[in-house]
Amino acid sequence: MRDEVADGWKISQVEVLVGLPRRDIQRACYEGAGGLGIVKPRNTTWGWRVYEVPDVAKLFLLAQGRRQGKTLDEVRDELASCEGARDVLHKLARCEQAAREACDAQAGASMSACALRCAIEQGDVTVFAGLIDASFAEDARAFCDAHAALGLAAEGLLSKLFADLARVRACGQAPSSNDAKEICAASVHAVSERCALRAADAAELLARAMNASGMGLTCELWLGPATWTYANAALEASQLDAQRAGATEEECHVKPLGDAKEQSAV
User: In terms of domain of life, where is this protein from (predicted)?
Assistant: First the structure.
């Protein structure tokens, strides 16, 4: 009954939820010698402490610090400035970002290892395209709904873009050639249409996907040295053309100031 009545968590529950040993949780509560004094759980009439959401958040951050090899005292110093909800939220946001970056790095390492193994074993080359398009799907989901992202990945949008640009490069054409830029523009248009994005956002999605961790190595193991850098240069050239075209179109819609003055004089 106590669990249902109390508006919070007991220490045994917090241990499981944040993965922090009981002794560390207890030290986090104590002030003075040996204590950290970073959380102050509420005492109940039943004689045990209730840990509320702000307490659990700080203990979670403490657990993350410990996993990074920091001492309790080091984490205490980092959390000493957490006096209000805004401070805690800021540190949680930083923790979230760091975890996301670590996840991306691990995914890139996994992708690179698989690509290298395939290259050494001289296995099925379709593995490379599969790795590239699976990575694209993950990046695309940050820009559009999962259905559209998976659809483009299943069609091999990014792997085909790399392969098409590799063929243009093999013909001796520069990244700024019309053929290379047209290939990139077509891919940007496809992403824009399928993901309901502005052209600039679609290009950003492609650039992000092309530069995901492990992408460069995978691309060049498949299509040859410098193909990944060539693809990036081609996309950049294509976008510069698009920006110039947009600026020119905007200028055409602006009436010259002299004409406006003449009309007002009439």
Answer: Bacteria
Residues forming CATH 1.10.1660.10 domain(s) in the chain:
2-81
Beta bridge partners of 43: 49
- Phi-psi sector, 212: left (phi>0), alpha (psi -120 to 50), beta: beta
| Residue 183, token pair as written in the block | 């290939």
Closest by alpha carbon to 183, among 172, 195, 171, 175? 175
CATH architecture of 2-81: Orthogonal Bundle (1.10)
How far apart CA 231 and CA 169 sit, in angstroms, is 9
Q: What are phi and psi of 42, to 5 degrees?
A: -85, 130
pLDDT tens by residue, 12-32:
888 999 999 898 888 888 776
Amino acid identity of residue 192, one-letter, is S
The span from the CA of 27 to the CA of 11, in Å, is: 12
> Could you report the per-residue pLDDT of 25-54, keeping only the tens digit for each?
888 887 767 678 788 888 776 667 888 888
